[in-house]
């Protein structure tokens, strides 16, 4: 299985998802979009595409002109029936690509938040096995407003955390892919974002909490990605 990772920040790549792809015998190509490089191969030629996070937001096209082209690419991939998994910014671009909205939250979700798996996820192969809920690692100040007909599969007290669009197209707001190194990098850069300082928890407390929880969370992330790959294989009649 060949997977393309669309990444928007050098320390926000596929993380443990890449480990899961390789453990399953697949190949993953990473395309770091802000570098301006051409894609490693035709994005439509992969068995699946995964999109990831970044410190930018979907309404910042003026500073990040590639946001528009990424939204258009994701819309094209969905229309073409390509399996896709979007995380955080990637999920928000996916929502906008299908006609939903992404709006600023009153506060932030930075750190670990209880996430409820909803009844709509009972038969969902990706989120259903995580019922009745789990604690997830998050880093965002915008939320997804889903278009009509798209069911919420999981949510926190504050916002949508998971949704499904088609047979093998999902968005997750939480960072199931994050590695310990990347989580620590985000905490290190805390003060570069004024909103993080205003709304977020104490960075050293978050670092300590993350150190305690990240190993178990990484196992959750690898399992989630493996289930996504299984769904891709089933949808495209690929070898499992």
Give a structural overview.
This protein is an alpha/beta fold. The protein has one domain (2-236): Rossmann fold, CATH 3.40.50.880. 34% of the residues lie in helices and 27% in strands. It contains six helices and nine strands; from the N terminus they run E-H-E-E-H-E-H-E-E-E-E-E-H-H-H. A nine-stranded mixed β-sheet has the order 2-1-3-4-9-8-7-5-6, sandwiched between helices. The protein starts with a strand and ends with a helix. The model has no long low-confidence stretch (mean pLDDT 94).
* CATH domain class name: Alpha Beta
Q: Biggest β-sheet: count, sense, barrel?
A: 9 strands, mixed
Oligomer: single chain
Question: H/E element string?
Answer: EHEEHEHEEEEEHHH
* Number of H- or I-type helical stretches: 6
Approximate helicity band: 25-40%
Alpha-carbon Rg, integer = 16 Å
Q: How far do the termini sit from each other?
A: 9 Å
Number of domains: 1
The assigned structural class equals: alpha/beta
- CATH fold name, please? Rossmann fold
| Average predicted confidence as pLDDT | 94
**Overall geometry:** globular
Strands across the major sheet, in which order? Answer: 2-1-3-4-9-8-7-5-6
In CATH, the architecture is: 3-Layer(aba) Sandwich
Strand share of the residues? 25-35%
